[in-house]
Amino acid sequence: MQIELNERDDALLKRSAKGDERAFAELYRRHQPPLYRFAVRMTGSTWAAEEIVQDVFMMLVREPKKFDAERGTLGAFLYGVARNRIMKHLERTPRDFSLDESGEAGRDSHPQLQEQMTPARWAELRERREQVRAAVLELPPEFREAVVLCELEEMSYDEAARSLNCPVGTIRSRLHRGRALLLAKLEMLREVPKRANASR
Amino acid sequence: MKEFAGEMSMNCEEFATAGLDLGATSEDSPLLRAAREHMCECSHCALLHENWLALREELRVLGAETSGAEAPSRVEMRLREEFRAQHKTLPSRRRAIVLTWGLAAAATLVVGITWANRHLHVGQGPSTTSATNVVSPQVAPAAGTNAGEVLVASNNSGDFTFLPDSVPMNSEDATVVHVQMQRAALGALGLTVNEEHAGDWIQVDLLVGDDGLPQAVRLPESGTQTTN
Fold it and tell me: Which one, A59, A190, B21, B170, has least CB within 10 Å?
């Protein structure tokens, strides 16, 4: 059976529920990348993100009727399921800052940038990036997801609100709190070397 | 937020909430204009904004690092395997369920029919008039009697002669029907008839089986005489 690129998710899901494997594969390819990125950025772990994405789609295979098209889009539904899995993961596992894990595709995403830098500058930038990543991962989950969606995934407030199934005002306020916490954390980190130099 | 001559003014707290969106969007709302004005007047908020822009850039770099990240292909393989397994077992499970229900319905039907038949027999009793309907086409009214009163049934089954091609059966299931008929009608039951007396009316006892067909015949003495 032919699959059109603009075929609606709910139509694909109906076909998938009837056993059309290609329809399921198309749904997976459409929704897996943002869900995986969201999970990686929220957990800081690629293996956890892999498990979470697998769980989410396994649910879609086994219980496709859980999705109700009248209550929202399939994307928002899957984000909601992924979000629940992520929260469970964060509750039962100690924070895991596997900072070297940036995903299979993320590892060499800026080769031209790497070539232009001196080793010292590269090390400095890398350290700074790890600090930022750690600061994001240290945010409380509800602020973290707002920062991840709006700042890392660069979603609009409306899109983030739809994905998390909450009002835009909630996104705004969580983002505001998240930004403030990030600034406080990173400004404090920036001050550490200065204070150390001053004390010498 | 205060409004002076149609323009809004912002304090530091309000700037921290709304002012950080400056630069993130190209729209020029009154809120952002007020934030921009506040930033010009307040060095603390200007520094906050500057720090935020630097952090936003770092967040973008961090986001770009994983912007192309996708789940490894093994996840899709596992899911497809699960999908196939799920949809392979589903039809066979459905078929088994349908078969089970079909068998259950058939069993219920058989039990119901058996029970109804047994119930009907008990209700019929030793002699019923329903037996008369089976043989009614062959019945002729006796002289001096009404047509509805011709047939009388009983279960006395002694001295019967089985009709040709009939299978001997349990006499308890049979009903004896007394009928008056023309002798010629015995021919239809496979018996030989004396043509000279074919038009005579005789009294005959028929042993009618469970299926409503006559199994055996008995000619009382008067009938026997006329047959010979």
Answer: B170
CB-CB neighbors (< 8 A) of A28 in chain B: 76, 79
pLDDT in tens, B123-152: 554 444 444 444 443 433 434 444 444 444
3-state SS class at B166: coil
* ipTM given for this complex: 0.73
Element (H, E) at B202: strand B201-208
Instruction: Point out which residues pair with B11 in neighbouring strands.
Output: none
Cα-to-chain-centroid distance, residue B23 = 66
For the segment B38-47, the average pLDDT, to the nearest whole number, is 86
CA dist A26 and B181 (Å) reads 85
CA atoms within 13 A on the CB side of B109: 6
B66: chain A residues, CB-CB within 8 Å: 37, 40-41, 102-103, 105-106, 152
Q: In sequence order, what are the beta bridge partners of B161?
A: B217
Rounded to 10 deg, the angle between the B43-65 and A168-199 helix axes is 100
* Pairwise CA distance, residues B100 & B106, whole Å: 10
How high is the pLDDT of residue B25? 62
Give how far the C-alpha of residue A38 lies from the chain's centroid of Cα atoms, to the nearest Å: 1
Interface size A-B, in CB pairs within 8 Å, comes to 115
- Are A9 and A73 in contact by the 8 Å Cβ rule? The answer is yes
